[in-house]
Design a protein that fits this description.
The chain has one domain: 3-Layer(aba) Sandwich (Rossmann fold). 48% of the residues lie in helices and 15% in strands. The chain has a 5-stranded parallel β-sheet, sandwiched between helices. Strands 6-5-7 form a 3-stranded antiparallel β-sheet. A hairpin with a 5-residue loop joins strand 5 and strand 6. Helix 2 packs across helix 3, helix 4 packs parallel to helix 5 and helix 6 packs antiparallel against helix 7. It is globular. The protein binds adenosine monophosphate (AMP). Adenosine monophosphate binds next to helix 2 and helix 3.
Amino acid sequence: MHLLLVGPPGAGKGTQAKRLAKKYSIPHVATGDIFREAIKNETPLGKKAKEYIDQGKLVPDEVTVGMVEERLSRDDCQKGIILDGFPRSVDQANALSDILQDLELALDAVVNIDVGDEEVINRLSGRRVCSECGASFHVEFNPPQDAGVCDECGGELYQRDDDNPETIKERLVVYSEQTSPLIEYYQERDLLLVIDGETTPEQVFERIEKELDALE
Ligand code: AMP
């Protein structure tokens, strides 16, 4: 199962990707997570990516595409992959198509998790993320049992630097201008599954499962 998850920031791509990766026992590759790990470790990649991430802009393709190519070339991606946060533009989608072709792999489906701007702003402004396992919470809609502590693994929760009102606004502009054309791109290639993302994570997952089961 080689899958892409698309949708605006805060749509729940990470949450659903983790569940799908577990269900199919395949890797979850999230470009945002790779960048955040590099930032934490203060690597050259992290330093470069931070300049863009803090502004809500896309990290340049020279950096991002090579990084994805390296990850997809590893053996564990042969049997399947859940790509989350890549591609984020038509140029990246074309680059991905070349990478997959070289690896003799093909996409099975592209899942578009559909969520409106107002909901995105509400979700991102209250989001808290686990520094250990990456699980997402929301101070109001999905609070952890103990404030600041992850229900899943006991890790410390933090607010992402780019989840502030100004950067959220810019990320939405970037999504609308650069990423949303992917919806038409994958529709034309007959790969797109559209899922209403404004329901509970459980309901979203059930709908994705149902759509994917229908493909098999
Ligand atoms: P995410 O965790 O997917 O919300 O990504 C956080 C940030 O990482 C984005 O706002 C971008 O600055 C950067 N980023 C993640 N994926 C990509 C990508 N495919 N291309 C360029 N920048 C990316």
